[in-house]
Amino acid sequence: MDFDLSTDQQALADLADQIFGDLASTDRVAEVEATDDRFDRSLWMALAEAGLVGVALPERDGGLGLGMVEASLVLEQQGRRVAPVPLLAVTELGAWAIAAHGSDAQRARWLEGVTQGSRILTGAWTDPAGADHSQPLTGVADGAGWRVSGTKVAVPAAGVAEAVVVPVDTDGHRVAVVPLDAEGLTVTLAETTSREIQGTLEFDHVAVGPDDLLEGDGDEITRSVLDRALVGTCAMVLGCCEEALAMAAAHVSEREQFGRPLSTNQGVALQAADAAIDTDGIRVTLQQAAWRLDNGLDISQAVPTAKWWAAEAGQRVVLTTQHLHGGTGADISHPAHRYFLWVLQLADSLGGAGTQLARLGSTIADGAS
Asked: pTM value?
């Protein structure tokens, strides 16, 4: 594959870099982190006006109709600025499934306003066990519909979203769109490692009707959503690592010890070089997974490989960059610490390194049998 970006892709990346760079300064991120919902609405509207919220959504639904490669370029820039906006939640965990598998009526009902930034959607795919697969909510027949019950955890943007896309067990495994103010649905919010607000959703006999179900097999939709979200997570990890490494390089070049910059010490240079190699590994495996996904190729090994690299190498990178900052890196108010927290959370999101390695091993073993 060709890892060079096309002219249009580079222009998209530059646009995202400009918007995030201008509006997600260190001071602005800290300001938003002090709010109750941790949601930078000004930045969100700027992204929507530039078309970046709908980068991977179809043109018929107001999006740009581009692929996962382009979506990853935008998410990478979000990671570089650790910007508090629900981009992955809305685009990959929520709206994409409706755009790909929803009826005309469902798309008209739920996707209107998403690309303009006025409607927030999310997805509830993670179970209390925390595995990378998602068990559907249990459904009991009730007239023409069902009453579903169960628990979903670590739901991003749960405090600001209007509806959630969630797997349900009705007439087989399906996926439903459920308003977050539905009777019987309780949302409990909590601060996470990265200082993001996520929710635990308790479904207690929540009504789901035939019109709430997306078309298609729920297991296939779930796997597709999770693969896209895993690739998007890798993109944010890449952005975090790139910026953390750039900050560390600037610090050790300016900081002097015994009359010379820290960067001239061999031990420092070797640590930085290892971090740069790890970052390149994240980039290459991410780009391969996104490219294969866009081209309809087998991604059964590419996606877990990318997520394993992002989880393992990503944590090594931010640990190194924090260490190279010395005492300031351990200061929780220092920007370097924020990148450390983000990567720690992203590394385990939707299944950490061990989970991805197990999935990869099973795929290889199945292919050899």
From this structure: 0.95
